[in-house]
């Protein structure tokens, strides 16, 4: 069986972007592959969370993983900071990651633009830590959304460089994966760009949002005055809502509103109502499980412990071999 690794940062509630870009594939892949799914709490340190927030967010992602259907008997579910071997591999990989390439990464440049007063070294070497996450289990498939594609390319670069340096074919090449033909990019509700927390709470639909909250957020989504000519190309804000409908609604529903749009007969109120209802249908089974699982602390503790043991076993094997390759040998 091929090995699969993926993770989500512990920075708050999970949203439809996380679900359709990553989680939905996690759930499907666990029957087919040797899967490691983790909570990227080390990555979330770049923004300096308080200890209480960090702990709460880690728990939140763990609960939502389970609520989405990741099965701790099928997959190894663990918290990144429970596996210190990852940090060790990160240190080794950092020796062959160069300033220039790290500075050129699109996500780094975005962060520099967004938070110019917090350009720390952890942010710069974020892709190296991500490469360590993947290479520590020698994974080949990484289910992620479109926004992570460049990071996967960097993971291949760092793995290959290690292989060349030590004249080995040690790390296999990891590739971004999705069951859909292309990697997924779920748009947000603000009329521009992807769904993401940094664009504000009104831009995202969380898996835990109540039906009332979903209706309100969708009702407030950016639209325009309506089409002004038949078969007009849709402006970005409208196209985004259609893309969301394509993800959560049936083909018939999508075709109906598309036709209405093309005939200049669309009523955005009805369109948004339908979109909100289909989002509610998508999220309800998960939302209902979230509160139930969150209350079961003993179960969560057991999942995290069991996962950490399994993940460390795999990570320790890699680190033993890597140390040998590097030349850390006992006398
Ligand atoms: P993060 O925490 O930002 O997002 C987690 C996953 O959700 C996907 N995603 C989206 N997909 C489609 N449309 C969207 N609007 C959208 N928003 C988020 C992301 O692509 C990702 O798959 N660096 C990673 C976490 C990470 C990781 C790893 C992933 C750390 N180490 C090793 C894979 C392997 C991140 O910040 O994801």
Automatic annotation (TrEMBL):
<feature type="short sequence motif" description="'KMSKS' region">
    <location>
        <begin position="194"/>
        <end position="198"/>
    </location>
</feature>
<feature type="binding site">
    <location>
        <begin position="145"/>
        <end position="147"/>
    </location>
    <ligand>
        <name>ATP</name>
    </ligand>
</feature>
<dbReference type="Pfam" id="PF00579">
    <property type="entry name" value="tRNA-synt_1b"/>
</dbReference>
<dbReference type="InterPro" id="IPR002306">
    <property type="entry name" value="Trp-tRNA-ligase"/>
</dbReference>
<dbReference type="InterPro" id="IPR002305">
    <property type="entry name" value="aa-tRNA-synth_Ic"/>
</dbReference>
<comment type="function">
    <text>Catalyzes the attachment of tryptophan to tRNA(Trp).</text>
</comment>
<comment type="subunit">
    <text>Homodimer.</text>
</comment>
<dbReference type="GO" id="GO:0006436">
    <property type="term" value="P:tryptophanyl-tRNA aminoacylation"/>
</dbReference>
<feature type="binding site">
    <location>
        <position position="133"/>
    </location>
    <ligand>
        <name>L-tryptophan</name>
    </ligand>
</feature>
<keyword id="KW-0067">ATP-binding</keyword>
<dbReference type="InterPro" id="IPR050203">
    <property type="entry name" value="Trp-tRNA_synthetase"/>
</dbReference>
<comment type="similarity">
    <text>Belongs to the class-I aminoacyl-tRNA synthetase family.</text>
</comment>
<feature type="binding site">
    <location>
        <begin position="194"/>
        <end position="198"/>
    </location>
    <ligand>
        <name>ATP</name>
    </ligand>
</feature>
<feature type="binding site">
    <location>
        <position position="186"/>
    </location>
    <ligand>
        <name>ATP</name>
    </ligand>
</feature>
<protein>
    <recommendedName>
        <fullName>Tryptophan--tRNA ligase</fullName>
        <ecNumber>6.1.1.2</ecNumber>
    </recommendedName>
</protein>
<feature type="binding site">
    <location>
        <begin position="9"/>
        <end position="11"/>
    </location>
    <ligand>
        <name>ATP</name>
    </ligand>
</feature>
<feature type="binding site">
    <location>
        <begin position="17"/>
        <end position="18"/>
    </location>
    <ligand>
        <name>ATP</name>
    </ligand>
</feature>
<keyword id="KW-0648">Protein biosynthesis</keyword>
<dbReference type="InterPro" id="IPR024109">
    <property type="entry name" value="Trp-tRNA-ligase_bac-type"/>
</dbReference>
<keyword id="KW-0436">Ligase</keyword>
<keyword id="KW-0547">Nucleotide-binding</keyword>
<dbReference type="InterPro" id="IPR014729">
    <property type="entry name" value="Rossmann-like_a/b/a_fold"/>
</dbReference>
<keyword id="KW-0030">Aminoacyl-tRNA synthetase</keyword>
<dbReference type="GO" id="GO:0005524">
    <property type="term" value="F:ATP binding"/>
</dbReference>
<dbReference type="GO" id="GO:0005829">
    <property type="term" value="C:cytosol"/>
</dbReference>
<feature type="short sequence motif" description="'HIGH' region">
    <location>
        <begin position="10"/>
        <end position="18"/>
    </location>
</feature>
<keyword id="KW-0963">Cytoplasm</keyword>
<dbReference type="GO" id="GO:0004830">
    <property type="term" value="F:tryptophan-tRNA ligase activity"/>
</dbReference>
